[in-house]
Write a structure and sequence with these properties.
Chain lengths: ~260, ~270
């Protein structure tokens, strides 16, 4: 075996790659271990152990009350985020197409994005009172602005050359929209949905902590008020978990649909 | 198959076209006529208005005065009688190769999906892309993308084909192959072709006539009637004495235009 060959072999060895392997399996377990270790340093009414929060979860599930809160939060997310999707697609495309409208709306988006959504909650409480409408409006305000900007940027990056090619192939105005602008902007719409969803979910939790009588945010704030740290931690786990799962299930579907469209 | 494929070409008349960008005149009364089935190349150094010229021909830009007539009618970009092949392939990345080729037919909406597919497959086969119909464009090489783009334009069965440096981004060998392919297709289909290029060899090899553009707004610097016999083939045509004679002439013309450009630029600086 020559020196060169030997060298090549050792180089190959140093680049061992196992397909499908990822260190991500370690993330959640290590977090739980850290939680358990830190919790040993505190009395359990301040920082409860993982299994104590699990017991708390069992109680909430057993008496069914957890489902009411999940459902309430879910409906608010659907209302606020759903409205934001419709409005941001319309306004995002308009801003992408019309320079004047873009110049008009971009400063407004920037202004609204500079205000933390929760700052709107007290005003909405005064206007709409405690409950669904207040939360939905706060969610809408927080989600719609970054979504408009994302979709607008997407429409702006659609290449003039693609539009020219489509026109030269006889595409009329509405055909350009359906067959070029829409599919070409799908990656940006998907990105806008991702951003909007997480913005909406954050705003939802924050708003529920102030202006609701149910929901996951209410669970956390109420737990804090009555000094039940188990309930607080359960709420936090659910907030994170629901968002994580929802994103995985919902956006996976969306991406698949988008791929089908690409092949179709 | 070969005989039934013939599409034929239309006459294109550019009549006293004036065009300017703001106060900068680009064309000042340019007139060219292209006969049915003619292969015309437009040659010129960069900045002499080649692309503007093509945009005027295709109707993407409207002349300030004068007219561009295809079969006696002012030309529109959406006109199904002409096809446009761009500098870059501009395939739609979300459509498969065959769907890209079908695009124009789908917009026209005159054929059933089966008929569309059949026609698209026919032209894909013609440009040598059979077997790649389900590939997304991103998986095709540069030359294959340009073939697909050509098939997409041909599927509309245009009677005028405008080509804007279609092979400019390809390597020299692929370019020569594509030149031969294009001649073969043109021979079979018989369209009128207006071919923009900055490559002298390509212009001579392909065309019946070569126009050298002058600096704007001076119009055509020179017309070269190309008497190289057809059918042309790489080894014979490219080594023919006439080929070299044309090449010398054109190199000389281009360098004159370039020298003028330098002079004008220097004058603008002062």
């Amino acid at each position: 075996m020559s020196v060169v060959a030997k060298d090549a072999v050792s180089k190959n060895k140093s680049r061992v790659y196992i397909p499908g392997f990822s260190w991500s399996w370690l993330s959640i377990p290590s977090l739980l271990v850290a939680w358990m270790l830190i919790a040993t340093q505190f009395p359990n009414y301040i920082l409860p152990q993982v299994w104590e929060v699990a017991e708390e979860a069992y109680d909430w599930i057993a008496d069914g009350s957890i489902f009411g809160h999940l459902w309430a939060s879910f409906l608010e997310e659907v209302g606020g985020f759903g409205a934001a999707i419709i409005v941001s697609i319309i306004f995002g495309f308009m801003a992408g197409f019309y320079k004047g409208f873009r110049e008009y709306i971009v400063p407004l988006n920037g202004l609204f994005m500079a205000i933390p959504p929760i700052a709107w909650a007290p005003l909405m409480l005064i206007i709409f009172g405690i409950g669904y409408t207040t939360i939905v409006v706060v969610i809408f305000i927080s989600a719609v602005n970054p979504m408009i900007l994302t979709i607008m940027e997407g429409v702006l990056t659609i290449q003039g050359s693609e539009i020219r090619a489509a026109r030269a192939l006889g595409a009329k105005r509405w055909q350009l929209f359906i067959h070029v602008y829409l599919p070409a902007s799908l990656p940006f719409i998907t990105a806008a949905l991702r951003i909007g969803f997480s913005q909406a979910w954050r705003a939802l939790v924050a708003a529920e902590m102030i202006g609701a009588t149910q929901g996951l945010g209410w669970m956390v704030s109420m737990g804090g008020e009555i000094g039940n740290s188990r309930q607080v931690l359960l709420g936090i786990v659910l907030i994170g978990g629901v968002s994580y799962l929802f994103e995985r299930i919902f956006f996976r579907r969306l991406e698949k649909h988008y791929e089908v469209w690409r092949i179709q | 198959m070969a005989t039934s494929s013939h599409v034929g070409g239309d006459e294109l008349i550019i009549e006293d076209v004036h065009f300017s960008y703001g106060s900068v005149p680009i064309f000042d009364g340019m007139s060219i006529s292209v006969s049915p089935g003619e292969f015309l190349s437009i040659l010129g150094p960069s900045g002499c208005g080649k692309t503007t010229f093509l945009n005027l021909l295709s109707g993407f830009l409207k002349p300030d005065a004068g007219s561009v007539l295809l079969r006696g009618e002012p030309i529109e970009p959406e006109d199904p009688h002409f096809g446009y092949v761009f500098q870059s392939a501009t395939l739609f990345p979300w459509l498969s190769t065959v769907e890209n080729v079908e695009f124009g037919l789908r917009m026209a909406g005159k054929l059933t999906p089966e008929q569309r597919r059949e026609k698209a497959m026919h032209y894909l086969d013609m440009v040598g892309l059979k077997g790649f119909e389900n590939y997304l464009p991103i998986r095709l090489s540069g030359g294959m993308q340009q073939r697909a783009s050509l098939a997409r334009a041909l599927a509309m069965e245009p009677r005028l084909l405008l080509m804007d440096e279609p092979f400019g981004a390809l390597d020299a060998i692929t370019r020569e192959i594509m030149n031969d392919e294009l001649l073969r297709l043109w021979d079979e289909l018989g369209q009128t072709v207006v071919f923009i290029t900055h490559d002298i060899d390509e212009a001579i090899y392909l065309s019946d006539r070569v126009l050298v553009l002058n600096l704007p707004p001076r119009g055509v610097f020179k017309t070269l009637n190309n008497d190289l016999p057809r059918p042309r083939s790489g080894p014979t045509t490219r080594t023919a004495d006439l080929f070299w004679q044309y090449k010398k002439e054109l190199i000389d013309d281009i360098s004159q235009v370039s020298a003028l450009k330098k002079k004008v630029q220097a004058a603008q600086m002062n």
